[in-house]
Specification:
single chain; 163 residues; 73% helix
């Protein structure tokens, strides 16, 4: 497709991130990149991947809920479920605004705010595992790290859109 972003541009972009291999795996190898025309399309792919990670975390929460027998663990996983739902809503809102492909500063600011709100919610879940009692290992750390990396990539994409 002649109007698509050259794959070399995608690879060069990934080299600008803190997580080159992660970017190449989750963004560079995404089948939708073949049709991506610009950073607006790359943003949509990245925020979609973030939504997938959040959805997978919610599924994981539902799968492990019964294995948490103590009240503290149950409270923590309940809070995480709430926070990941907030994250899902926030990232979806960013995706919806991104669909407009608007160049307005108001839309860019709202995308940034929504993305940050989603990330903050995921961080609040992760932080909960060290509060209000003995520190426990979070069963959601894998998803937290993936969302963190995807949000860092998203911030870089947004900076490219603003340039």
């Amino acid at each position: 497709m002649s109007s698509a972003m050259p794959i070399t541009d995608v690879h060069n972009f990934c080299k600008e991130t803190f997580e080159v291999d992660f970017c190449l795996k989750y963004i560079g190898s995404d089948q939708r990149m073949v049709a991506a025309r610009d950073f607006s399309d790359m943003f949509l792919i990245t925020i979609s991947e973030t939504q997938i990670q959040v959805t997978n975390a919610i599924t994981h929460i539902n799968n492990i809920r019964q294995s948490l027998n103590d009240p503290l663990g149950k409270n923590r996983i309940g809070l995480c479920e709430e926070k990941y739902e907030v994250a899902a809503t926030s990232f979806h809102k960013a995706w919806e605004i991104g669909q407009k492909k608007s160049n307005s500063s108001t839309d860019r600011m709202e995308i940034t705010r929504s993305t940050q709100a989603g990330f903050d919610a995921v961080c609040e879940c992760e932080d909960e595992w060290s509060k209000h009692g003995p520190r426990q290992e979070s069963p959601l750390t894998f998803y937290y790290h993936n969302v963190l990396k995807l949000c860092q990539i998203t911030r870089l994409i947004i900076s490219k859109l603003e340039a």
